[in-house]
Amino acid sequence: xxxxxTRSDSGAASRARRNWGPLAxxxxxxxxxxxxxxxxxxTVVLRSLSQPEWGLQNYIxxxxxxxxxxxxxxxxxxSAWVTLVCVVAAYPYAYAxxxxxxxxxxxxxxxxxxxxxxxxxxxxxxWVILLQDSGVINSTLRALDLGRLRLIRTQxxxxxxxxxxxxxxxxxPLYSVMKGIDLRLVQASRSLGASPLRAFFTVxxxxxxxxxxxxxxxxxxxxxxxxITPALLGGxxxxxxxxxxxxxxxxxxxxxxxxxxxxxxxxxxxxxLALAGPLMRQKHKQGARS
Amino acid sequence: xxxxxxxxxxLGLSCLLVALWLVAPTxxxxxxxxNGNKSLAFPPVGFSWQWYENFVSNPEWSTSFFNSLKVALIxxxxxxxxxxLAAFGLDRMKARTAGLLRMLLLTPMVVPGVVLAIGIYAxxxxxxxxxxxxxFVLAHTILALPFVLIAVQASLEVFDKRLETAAASLGAxxxxxxxxxxxxxxxPGILSGLLFAFATSFDEIIVSLFIxxxxxxxxxxxxxxxxxxxxxxxxxxxxxxxxxxxTILIGGGLFxxxxxxxxxx
Lengths: 290, 265
Fold this sequence. Notes:
The complex is a heterodimer of chains A (290) and B (265).
Chain A: H1 2-9, H2 12-50, H3 57-64, H4 66-99, H5 102-117, H6 120-131, H7 136-143, H8 155-179, H9 183-191, H10 196-224, H11 228-233, H12 241-251, H13 255-289
Chain B: H1 5-27, H2 29-33, H3 50-57, H4 59-91, H5 95-110, H6 113-127, H7 133-158, H8 162-169, H9 174-203, H10 206-211, H11 219-229, H12 234-264
């Protein structure tokens, strides 16, 4: 409080002088950002418009080729499924984390954090071992004489693997919102005659929605750009956009086409973020009001 | 909140299933790592330590492990210094400028990995940074920076600035104030940022896959190429080692945090 008072008291000249200090502190990070994120992304955009020659031909090719549109649509469909699976699985789990005693909470937290910290490649490797045709699931089914399931190189396999990798990103924000919900509000609605179900749907669920939105956006955006899991668990019929980008650039050396696909993916991500920002804030306010 | 016993059972059951789904699949690498055959088919046959021996003795594996360690250690220090400086800078700026710069500095978290990877690869091809330590460190540092920024900003938010004013009014210089008051109080934030930065770099795969070459491979790249190339159970041995290390570190950290909190009460 006192610092802000002195700051507003001081003259414009000293304020201008002070403003350079903080910027200088942030400068090294910002320079690195420009050099290692800004300039490379600019290069991608530039190449998508200039290789092999200047013009929009790479975008016309992208939106004019049915295979690309199928993959684009599939990327969104798989991401939506992954998000849905994550919400359904994370909601009761995050709620339980708020409801149990400290020891059980430690255990539940550990179960979320260990996969979160174990390398994503190792977790995908585990899914390959489990889902492959000679994997755990199919060996068990064969032993029980139940035939076999095609899991690897299918969309189902990709969704199962991706949702598991992304689940912590759903549970953690959901938990932090649920932790802050005042349970006396639920009790109040119960004492006023609401059934447990009604109390949940009219009081608890709306209050927890900011957490659901936050988690769902993070999961959806991360899923859109997923590369490793679909590459290892997926087959030709579950290719996602990232794999196509990689294929164009590394195998076909088509920097222009790969770049155009990358720009589409990038734009989709930023548009989603821009749309979700106000939505999350608005719901937050609503939650606080009710 | 009082719950119907039926709801309670359902909740417990779904929790158990989700916990199993989170943890159990990864555990499958443990039996596979002791496989007697050179195959990743289930169930493993026989018992042997040969894949652990291979990890230690095969230069392809041990070199990539030490490469990852080296890169991650440098990245952890670099990202922590840059991220902490930036967090302090943003803390002292006008709210609108700070918000904008924060958003910019967090973009590496949301940019799709492959898009970033082809961009960095293109730039590195022009600047001869492909397959170099500098190249890996620069790319991983910018990817790790958001985590440091978030962690340090969170601890700065709860830090009481009047303590700095108090120190200054008692005659401490700016450096002395920073060293004896500010730094010790936000140390936990900086430390968790450091840990996050290390883990981010140690795990990073997508950008690494593009900027790697035969002379410099990191562990995740080695694991990925091993999975796609052949069914070498050494990957399972590596996975088991990483799993154990992570569990001990995180479990120990949570345990210590819990004990400290109880001690303070």
